[in-house]
Amino acid sequence: MDAFLAAILEGAPPEDLTAIPLPESYRGAVVRRRDVAMFDGLPSAEKDPRRSLSVAEVEVPEMAPDEALVAVMASSINFNTVWSAIFEPLPTFEFLRRLGREGYWGARHDRDLHVLGSDASGVVIRVGSAVRNWRVGDEVVVHCNYVDDQDPSAHDDSMLAASQRIWGYESNFGGLAELSLVKANQLMPKPAHLSWEEAAVNALTNSTSYRMLISRNGANMRLGDVVLVWGAVGGLGGYALQYVLAAGGVPVGVVSSSRKAELARALGCAAVLDRSERDYRFFAADGKADPGEWRRLGADIRSLVGEDPDIVFEHPGRETFGASVYVAKKGGTVVTCAATSGYEVTYDNRHLWMKLKTIKGSHFANYAEAWAANKLICQGRIQPVLSATFPLEQVGEAAWQVHRNLHEGKIGVRCLAPEDGLGIRDPELRARIGEERITTFRRLGA
Ligand code: NAP
Fold first, then answer.
1. Could you tell me the pLDDT band of residue 445, with boundaries at 50, 70 and 90?
2. What is the pLDDT, as a whole number, of residue 446?
3. 198 & 326 share domain
4. First and final CA of the chain: distance in angstroms?
5. How far, in Å, CA of 194 to CA of 427, rounded?
6. Residue 393 CA to ligand 1 centre (angstroms)
7. Which atom from ligand 1 is nearest to the alpha carbon of 340?
8. Given Cys at both, which of 144, 206, 243, 413 links 118, Cβ 3.0 to 4.6 Å?
9. Would the CB of 169 count as within 6 Å of ligand 1?
10. Is the same domain home to 301 and 386?
């Protein structure tokens, strides 16, 4: 891939990129089928991605007519990389095996190495014969909704498609690599004012937060809504907070340290709860939920903003779900996309039905939602939440930090990019938006 990198850094025209022969293999961050039992018997917290995730040479796959090959300049760690690397809740090789049963093109994915990664920024270096809207040389970011557009069930909301998968998690050849194989309908323009690593961290969590809060498929937030955001400076929460503020809502951010509280305030969130300092214990020593603690959280929210949340932005799962259902306003919505602390949740159903609340499931975003969320990044209305970067060789350490909640916002991974700060094509727009706003997480994070 060195020749591609040199050409990209020189700003070579598309014909030069086309003339460079594809290598036989490329470097990618992988987990291995033979390792899936390596953490058996260990508690989740001790399952260490530094042991399971490594960089390997991967054979370049054949490209289908509706696909593109992207030279990946940067990628990011998402929590799904952590799940894949600790083989929870199940090894992702099962997904690859299933995809492998879907004919000739599906069979490419069923390998003993799974190249992970569900975000990327980079340059298109090959397009299949059926690709119409993208050309070699285009600078792009990649969203992770991997869906067959010839599947009729994909044509209302593609997240409801029977064929829907998450690229780099339920498919192979993901973004944590020098090269990635994507469907053309995953491509979006790279924000011109951002560097490769700033551009790489947004698509997955930004689009997810957009759907959860702004899209009519999610909580459909209104002007003035009070929104409780768990993990308010995490990967999802950092965007959620910005959406609530941009859409004229009142965020109440929950975080777990005074430094994170400061970061939430720097983003414009006036009402912040430090859950470590407040020491909520939603479960008693016997493992039973403690409604007294739900009430204490509710009282804390009221004392900050004077009312209950119209929307709860929920993803920690087991440890917070009962509290989330309790504190939502009468008629309010708990919108959930995850269960970091456990997927078997407990809540008191009386609070749900008697107070006419709604629990709304949400998962990533369809192409239109991802495109709309990316447009807001391109316009500088929503900022990347990049706090740190690692080279591809240290992908295990980067995933470990996310696994153990040692990070803020998003961690970027340089794949081909030799250093941070490259790839900014519109410095004037960057100056207009403001360096300080774009780099808030880098400046104030750990
Ligand atoms: P992240 O960057 O680790 O952020 C999550 C935040 O949640 C942390 O910053 C932490 O904030 C908070 N948190 C963690 N454990 C908690 C607990 N027990 N109680 C309260 N808060 C807790 O991860 P992320 O990228 O935002 O992803 C979060 C979850 O969403 C993951 O499980 C991921 O797999 C899932 N996800 C799902 C989708 C989808 O499409 N379905 C998309 C993206 C992510 P504090 O410690 O500061 O409170």
1. confident
2. 66
3. no
4. 33
5. 9
6. 24
7. 32
8. 144
9. no
10. no
Asked if residue 60 is part of any domain, the answer here is yes
Domain count, the chain: 2
The 3-state DSSP composition of the chain as helix, strand, coil percent (nearest 5) reads 35, 20, 40
* Residue among 30, 5, 29 at smallest CA distance from 17: 5
Same domain, 61 and 79: yes
CA of 337 to the centre of ligand 1 (A): 10
> Average pLDDT of the chain?
97
Q: Are residues 415 and 324 in the same domain?
A: no
Domain hosting 279: range is 219-361
Could you say which of 316, 344, 361 is where a domain stops?
Answer: 361
Nearest to 105 by CA among 174, 33, 181: 181
What gap in Å lies between CA 91 and CA 83, rounded to an integer?
A: 8
Q: Which atom of ligand 1 is nearest to the CA of 365?
A: 40
Query: Is the minimum distance from the CB of 439 to ligand 1 under 6 angstroms?
Result: no
CATH number at residue 328: 3.40.50.720
Does residue 174 share a domain with residue 27? yes
Confidence of residue 57 (pLDDT cuts 50, 70, 90): very high
| Ligand 1 site-directed mutation target among 118, 252, 315, 411, most atoms within 8 Å of CB | 315
Task: Mark whether 254 and 311 lie in a shared domain.
Answer: yes
Using the predicted structure, report yes or no on whether residue 323 has a pLDDT greater than 80. Answer: yes
Specify the amino acid at residue 175. Answer: G
If you take atom 33 of ligand 1, which residue's CA is the nearest one? 79
Rounded distance from Cα 287 to ligand 1 centre (Å): 22
pLDDT of 179 over the 80 cut: yes
Nearest by Cα to 85 from 51, 58, 113: 51
Whether residue 76 sits in one domain with residue 7:
yes
Is 326 among the domain residues?
yes
Ligand 1 center to 420 CA (angstroms): 26
Say yes or no: CB of residue 329 within 6 Å of ligand 1: no
Same domain, 298 and 400: no
The pLDDT tens digits of the residues spanning 123-146 come to 999 999 999 999 999 999 999 999
- 319, 337, 361 - which closes a domain: 361
